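Assess this one:

_____
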Amino acid sequence: MLKGFIFDLDGVLTDTEKYHLAAWHELAEQLGIHLPSEADAALRGRARMDSLELILRYGHQEQNYDEAQKVALTEEKNRRYRALVASITSADILPGIPLLLEKAKQHRLKMAIASASKNAPMILQRLGLASQFDAIVDPSSLHHGKPDPEIYIKAQQLLQLQADEVISFEDAPIGIAAIKAAGQFAVGIGDADKLAAADYRVSTTDQLDYDRIVAAFEGR
């Protein structure tokens, strides 16, 4: 029986991915690293340190920095990102999301955020959505980033639910992989080929219809 929804944040509730990517590109250029076209897709949904490690591999600079220096670089990226999202408002909630959350509340579903972003609480406050969620996973409490299922298992546990009682929403392939590894029902938002592993898929958030999603969940 369905009892909860779990959401990624960036690219699902709001489009802050563009700000993350812009901040990473700025940092990469500062380090003398030119990111290839496929880097954006590879960076989507990754934890902050995992993203930095990927960028350094692109530039063959993995051995150039110690852990303290890497932490400093991720903090610099975060400062750039926070400056870019400072003006975000409820107008930046993606289409279809307000109605989906409203329907979930009407059906008394518990809801959680499973985002790799440590800025999730701040972003939810700016969007005016913080009160909608029963739990937010703290990425700093995790040992593994997506595609490891840890973050989705943690969200499920915070809601005090079982894997077969939740539906989780993602826009990145590594996020879908994490959901499936957690044994949960995965809703993918985006490209059909990249999100082929999802149990249910839509191209854009405005196609997220509560009744159709629940019907697919119940008929799996």
Observations:
- The chain has a mean pLDDT of 95.
- The longest helix spans residues 67-84.
- The beta strands are 4-7, 110-113, 135-136, 166-170, 185-189, 200-202.
